Amino acid sequence: MSMPVIPQVVMLQVNDDLYVKDEEGYAFCDLRDAVKLITPRSIPVFVVNEEITADYLISFLRENFIADAFVCASFKKRELIKYVCEAHPLLRGVLDFSDMPLGKDRIRKLSMILAACHASVALLSSQTARKSVIRYVQKRLCGVWIESESIVDEITRGSNGIVTPLYQKLYDLYELFPGPSVLKTTNLFSHRGLHITGEHPENSLEGIVGACKAGLDGVEIDIHLSADEHMVVCHNASTGDLFDRDMVIQDATLEELKTLRYKSGHPGTLPTLGEVLSAIKPYTDTILIIELKAPDVVKAAKKCRDIIRNMGSESQCVFIKGPKIPSLGHLRKAMPEIPAGYCVDTDSRVENTLAANKEVYWFCKTTPGWQAAYNTRYNRVNRMFQQYAGLRGIHVFPWSGTTEGNMHDTFLSGFDGMTINLVDLYMSLPIALRSRKKNVVCRYAENGDKNTLFTAEATCVYRDGSSKKATKLNVLIVSGQKLVKHNGSYYADQPGETMLLLQSEIKLSEDISYYIYSEPVSVTFVGDQDSGHMKAR
Asked: Are 391 and 357 in contact (CB under 8 A)?
């Protein structure tokens, strides 16, 4: 028997009198009593629709010292999120799109809309939250929650959360998955482009474009400001490590920097930010993670803003900065519509809940109201911290691992993204399992007749868009009648419907494997009298 569970997050619709409302709009519980009831076991999400409610909520939060919480508003009332988060900076924002259709143009701008109103999570309807949309948003340091009443359809889409009244059933479903199972695709970001193989230098235009062509989700680059105020792409403040002459970038003009030649003999030149944005523009699903290293951050932030806006590349860019937080603040002020990440470069490990709580509290206090991701060395954090931070709308992006064993541990821990050098470790792995059919009708096996069987068929989909037939598929029964396996296929001995997932085992290394799953497949078994209607849909 399933044990009763407690939801990790609870949404509270608040009215002007600080009472919690039900779905019909009737007040039924004082907000103070509701918060006492659910905390600290669950995280409250305060849903507000009017400015006066937001004012009362701010006072309530301050008086009761509540910091571990979200504020949520509809798209039409999105300014309320920014209003509350600026007044109470430790809160995170949830922007509710669940009751509105989202066309391609709005989806493309989704992360910018979230960033501009201080929201770190998008609440989408089941119809809108397709797997491709979820990954598109997550790459840009945003979380996605799905509002759902069925939950079966959403369980393998890779969202950061499912908002449902059926949370007990949701927990029961998760118990069905054997470990290690991967339900959310980890986004891969190439550290300074494809350069480890030696084919291209780091931060070179060719290496950056190469990462895009290979199907990576994003590329991390470093930029500096030249003496004549051009943004150029280079890791160090001087050029001696990569080029034939050593120039201090902030003291050299772009014309002088373009005369440099790579020591490796590579034919390219030191690229500018504008050249990189122009080169990756055709790869609309690839983002550029820009680490700004110029000493004059205010001037550099404005230059970045002008270049990115002139190129129309806002939806392809993310900023990261560290360790000086004010620098990231200048970037946020210059371009509030672009998500940001903070690089935490320290050796201290976050290994227990107390340490995670302190780290998250510090991070929220240091990045007030921002849609900011936590970027840190991969060996500082573990699955526990990823889950603790993720529940609070904070994306965790470890970087830039070079040790295979530890990288595999990170990959299997469900982090939102990894900025890595060793991209070849994961480029050959599928990111999805796609069932050949979502709805199938078969004849059930009357009198022991097994001539009509359900045969699992699916393809593995890869980062570069290619696919190939999956082999050694298993079936995971989600609901309905049990099936009997027979010579690699399945049959039922009575009529009825079965909801199942297809499962494929993926080898990560010689001794490490994990499972990936298809979207749900509905199989209906009918008798002879219905055989004329048998078809696969």
From this structure: no
**Which residues is 465 bridged to in the sheet?**
none
pLDDT for 81 beyond 50: yes
Tokens of 367: 């990045």
Q: What's 42's DSSP letter?
A: S
pLDDT (tens digit per residue) in 418-432: 888 888 888 889 999
The 10s digit of each residue's pLDDT in 182-227 is 998 889 999 999 887 677 899 999 999 999 998 899 999 999 999 9
Helix axes 79-87, 51-63, angle to 10 degrees: 30
How sure is the predictor about 536, in pLDDT bands with cuts at 50, 70 and 90?
A: very low
Task: Report the alpha-carbon distance of residue 270 to residue 433 in Å, rounded.
Answer: 40
DSSP label of 148: -
Cα 425 to Cα 421: distance, rounded to the nearest angstrom: 10
Q: Give, in degrees to the nearest 5, the angle at Cα 217 between 320 and 312.
A: 65
Task: Name the 3-class secondary structure at 326.
Answer: helix
Query: Phi-psi region for residue 306, left (φ > 0), alpha (ψ -120 to 50) or beta?
Result: alpha
Quick one: pLDDT band at residue 92, thresholds 50, 70, 90? very high
- Beta strands (DSSP E) in 370-426 are 372-377, 396-399, 417-420
**Looking at the whole model, is its pTM more than 0.90?**
yes
Three-state helix/strand/coil letters over 66-116: CCCCEEEEEHHHCHHHHHHHHHCCCCEEEEECCCCCCCHHHHHCHHHHHHH
Q: Concatenate the DSSP letters of all residues of 396-408 into one string.
A: EEEE----HHHHH
Q: What is the pLDDT of residue 197?
A: 67
Q: Evaluate if residue 533 carries a pLDDT over 50.
A: no
Cα–Cα distance measured from residue 85 to residue 57, given in angstroms and rounded to the nearest whole number: 11
In this structure, the dihedral spanned by the alpha carbons of residues 99, 105, 106 and 108, taken in order and rounded to 10 degrees, is: 130
Token pair 């469900």 is at which residue?
A: 414
Residues with Cβ within 8 Å of 201's Cβ and at least 6 positions away in sequence, in order, are 195, 207, 242, 262, 264, 266, 268
Half-sphere exposure for 268 (CA within 13 Å, toward CB): 18
Q: How many helices (H) and strands (E) does the chain have?
A: 16, 28
- In what order do the strands lie in the sheet containing 70-74? 27-30, 19-21, 9-14, 43-47, 70-74, 92-96, 119-125, 143-147, 161-163
Quote the pLDDT of residue 523.
94
In this predicted model, what pLDDT tens digit does every residue of 430-446 receive, in sequence order?
999 999 999 999 888 87
Residues 482-501, mean pLDDT to the nearest whole number: 90
Average pLDDT of the segment spanning 67-77: 95
CA distance 243 to 97: 49
Assess whether the previous peptide bond of 4 is cis (omega < 30° from 0): no
Widest pairwise Cα distance in the chain = 86
> Phi and psi at residue 335, in whole multiples of 5°?
-140, 80
Q: State the DSSP H helix or E strand holding residue 31, giving kind and residue range, or none if neither.
A: helix 31-38
